[in-house]
UniProtKB/TrEMBL annotation:
Coiled coil: none annotated. GO terms for biological process: glutathione metabolic process. SUPFAM superfamilies: GST C-terminal domain-like, Thioredoxin-like. GO terms for molecular function: glutathione transferase activity. It comes from Linnemannia hyalina. Residues 25-105 form the GST N-terminal domain. This is GST N-terminal domain-containing protein.
Length: 250
């Protein structure tokens, strides 16, 4: 567990904090003990082969006001200069880490494609959370029906096209792992850990291109090592417990 102290961004030390981000010595990712919006950041750090750690908030209800937006994840980056910069918001954290670990393609155009695909997969996961996860018990069935008949098939069709256009090799751009690959795989893993997983995965598993991408990400040696460990397995089970009854944790 970790205590939070990052309520305001420091402007006075911006030069030193920029140096910390440019030359990091260690990373620490703070998120709840589930996969969800912490999964991609953890996977990126695992892929980076860097000095990193992960923790859950010690007392979220009393400490959330100490985070910039009363939200996690937060990424603490301690530089070689001893200064620690705090990054907030999932998209910012994942873009920063992907850039650090060369997971944004080989040029600016490829980077824009990867970020677009990354945004799309993050959006469909958030759409599920808004329409299904946090719906009332009475409204969940209808919301799930709409998600599985409209939102999810549209997302699958769009991403299949991009994967096929790239040669259906399990990657979106070229033949290398990218931020988009990892984010899409984690969206699928998120759906697979839901109470409605049987319905959701029956649809996703019909897509050979997306299934291949998921498998390619899962087979990455550094991710095999991370995901086979007790910490990752605990987060996966935490996902199942939380999403079975989110209201019980609030």
């Amino acid at each position: 567990m970790a205590h939070i102290d990052a309520s305001h961004y420091s402007r006075d030390a911006s030069v030193e904090l920029s140096e910390a981000l440019a030359k990091p010595a260690s990373y620490r990712l703070l998120y709840f003990p589930v996969l969800s919006n912490g999964a991609t950041g953890r996977d990126l750090l695992a892929c980076g082969g860097v000095n990193w750690s992960h923790a859950a908030p010690a007392d979220w209800e009393t400490e959330k006001n100490k985070s910039p937006f009363q939200m996690v994840p937060l990424l603490y980056v301690t530089g070689e200069n001893g200064k620690t910069a705090t990054l907030a918001e999932t998209m910012v954290i994942e873009h920063y880490l992907a850039k650090k670990f060369s997971l944004l393609g080989s040029n600016e155009y490829e980077e824009s494609i990867i970020k677009s695909l990354h945004s799309s997969s993050a959006a469909v996961q958030n759409a599920f959370a808004v329409t299904v996860t946090w719906n009332t018990p009475e409204g969940k069935a209808g919301a799930l029906g709409f998600f599985t008949s409209a939102t999810l098939p549209i997302w699958i069709a769009a991403h299949e096209r991009h994967l096929i256009d790239n040669g259906n090799n399990g990657h979106y751009v070229g033949d290398k792992l990218s931020l988009a690959d990892i984010r899409t795989a984690n969206t699928i893993e998120h759906l697979a850990a839901q109470p409605e997983s049987a319905t959701l995965m029956a649809i996703v598993n019909k897509s050979a291109p997306l299934t291949k991408l998921r498998d390619m990400v899962a087979k990455h040696p550094k991710l095999v090592q991370w995901r086979s460990g007790a910490d990752y397995k605990g987060y996966f089970e935490g996902n199942r417990a939380f999403y079975a009854n989110p209201a019980a944790f609030m």
